[in-house]
Amino acid sequence: MKTRILTMFIVTLCLGACKSLSMEDAMKDPVISLNSVELTGIAFTGADGLCKINVENPYPVAIPFPYIEWEVFIADAKVTTGAIEGGANIKAKNAAIVDVPFHVDYADLYNTIASVKDASKNGAKETGFKIVLTAAFDIPVLGEKKLPFEVEGMMPLLQAPRFSGMALSIGAIDFTGVTLKCSFDVENPNAFEIPFPNMEWDYSVNNNSFVKSGVERAAPLAAHSVSPVAIQVDVNYADLYDAFQTLLATGEADGVLTLTSGLAAIPAFAGEALSHDLAGKIPLLKPPSIRFTGLTVRNVNIFEGLLAGNSKIDFTIGFEVENKNNFSITLESLAYTLAVNGSQWMDGAAPNKTEIEANQKAVIPINATITTLPLVREIGALVASRRTNVPYVCEGGFTIRGDFPNLSQSVETPFTITGVTRF
């Protein structure tokens, strides 16, 4: 009680020295109130905010600008601090608006508060924050006054990109390989653009990596946008069979496209990656094989035809085509050039289409006639010599249409056959 009387006595003496302040004035404190709080900028690196507070001077004299310290809390953890000092005096019976800017770094926030990062991963779009500040006034006569003040608000959380609509399908297929099309959407759920994630993919067959590559895109993902992405996977059957011999006897295999998206370009998610698997059967088509079965001489007219000028030899050329697939194929055309014993004898084509059932063979006989006199004489000499084995080279190509979904129409396959034949 004595201390309080002494204090009032000292204040009364001071007021006497400063007649503009009354005892009633001495009992007042400056008033702090909220003017506004808002986000002034936001990006994938962090958010900037501005808290405006009103500072009212209740005294009939000007007072110095207060020294303000502030701290920002999220989930009861301190994430950033700051201070403001220096400014114009606040006039008597007047008010001033003080700007308190603050910045929250997402990487620091997510590394510091695991619960906030987990909430973001689970789809939370915002989190609460609290600004705790203290304004210190150095008021003449009355001395220092410290006034606390708190402001609460909400700020958006950074969200990782999302993937949806993932699909894997056959784009094209023939007897040399299959082209797979993978399509999906990359969504940016944030109200600001973010870097496009680094994407790599690995296509494995029967749990063995076969082909891999990546997606290169420089443009960032716009705010609240959905960007379609397409990946093409080319599987060459020859390479596949060389790598996995066990697939030669099968008609399909298990294929899995693994898409991995690194988020290193977004500091808050550095070191993390998103992974997605797309599984499906991959058809294994086998090109038909072709074998030259030999020449059959049907008619020889050399010497009799010399006088008439129409020397000729009639042949039947045989080709055996094997369909190694579980579906039927149609041999639409077959063209060839035949060289025997180092000389080109003839060329021609199969006259008709031939249907070959699944896992079956078909022999294609092609009739041909040679009328060039020097060649006829050469053939006659071979026949007369009774040689049993004669070397040959048969080159050409055949066109196939298959009864298989998405199979490219009229697939042309070249061939070269060498060996020996008998007359």
Q: Determine the structural class based on helices, strands and strand pairing.
A: mainly beta
What portion of residues belong to β-strands? over 45%
Order of helices and strands: HHEEEEEHHEEEEEEEHEEEHEEEEEHEE
- Cα distance spanning the termini: 138 Å
Mean pLDDT: 85
Task: Give a nutshell description of this structure.
This protein has helices at 2-17, 23-26, 106-112, 114-121, 237-243, 303-308, 373-385; strands at residues 31-43, 46-56, 67-74, 77-84, 95-105, 126-139, 143-156, 162-173, 177-188, 198-205, 208-215, 225-236, 252-262, 273-283, 289-301, 312-322, 329-340, 343-349, 354-356, 361-370, 390-402, 411-421.
Description:
This protein is mainly beta and 423 residues long. The chain has three domains: 24-156, Immunoglobulin-like (Sandwich); 162-283, Immunoglobulin-like; 289-421, Immunoglobulin-like (Sandwich). 14% of the residues lie in helices and 55% in strands. The protein has seven helices and 22 strands. Strands 17, 18, 19, 21 and 22 form a five-stranded antiparallel beta sheet that branches. The longest helix has 16 residues, at 2-17.
Layout: helices, strands, pairs:
Blueprint: H1 2-17, H2 23-26, E1 31-43, E2 46-56, E3 67-74, E4 77-84, E5 95-105, H3 106-112, H4 114-121, E6 126-139, E7 143-156, E8 162-173, E9 177-188, E10 198-205, E11 208-215, E12 225-236, H5 237-243, E13 252-262, E14 273-283, E15 289-301, H6 303-308, E16 312-322, E17 329-340, E18 343-349, E19 354-356, E20 361-370, H7 373-385, E21 390-402, E22 411-421
Antiparallel strand pairs: 1-2, 2-5, 3-4, 3-6, 6-7, 8-9, 9-12, 10-11, 10-13, 13-14, 15-16, 16-20, 17-18, 17-19, 17-21, 21-22
Helix pairs in contact: 3-4
